[in-house]
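Section 5: illustrative case.
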């Protein structure tokens, strides 16, 4: 019976690699004090991830706008549904900015901050709704007003997002 040299070499190779890894990690921990640990790895930023995140934000704006158009037809929970869609939009935008390179963040810092501020302005419409209802306006009328404002404002916000994204070359090589 003949033994296969690959069967013998494979365990030996794995054992050697494990030894190198264990010994190597021990040597790395034994560095003198002046050496700081490496900074944590940032999320990978590549054109495909950027395009995907941008498309996610664009889709979420569309879903948010759909929720504002359909809200008046809900029997209950219209405000909560629109609020939830807005929070998902905000999360998608934050995820999108997490895919940008440090150069893109630097070049578009003011514009990206203005987009974030635009989301804050959109959020104020929810506060205005609550105030109108507290002041005695019917919830249906206040909801209709809020949804019209949110629909139009989110469209303007999306145009600005697309403009900034083009200028920063989001998703390009």
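Designed sequence:
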């Amino acid at each position: 019976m003949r033994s296969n040299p690959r069967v013998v070499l494979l365990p030996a190779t794995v054992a050697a690699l494990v030894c190198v890894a264990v010994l190597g990690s021990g040597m790395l921990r034994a560095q003198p004090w002046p050496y700081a640990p490496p900074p944590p790895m940032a999320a990978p930023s590549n054109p495909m991830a950027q395009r995907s995140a941008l498309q996610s934000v664009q889709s979420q704006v569309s879903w948010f706008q759909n929720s504002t158009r359909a809200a008046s037809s809900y029997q209950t929970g219209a405000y909560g549904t629109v609020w939830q869609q807005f929070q998902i939009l905000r999360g998608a935008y934050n995820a999108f900015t997490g895919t940008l390179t440090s150069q893109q963040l630097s070049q578009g810092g003011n514009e990206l901050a203005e987009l974030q501020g635009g989301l804050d302005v959109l959020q104020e419409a929810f506060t205005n709704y609550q105030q109108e209802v507290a002041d005695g306006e019917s919830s249906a009328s206040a909801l209709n007003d809020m949804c019209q404002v949110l629909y139009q404002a989110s469209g303007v916000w999306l145009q600005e997002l697309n403009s900034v994204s083009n200028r920063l070359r989001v998703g390009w090589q």
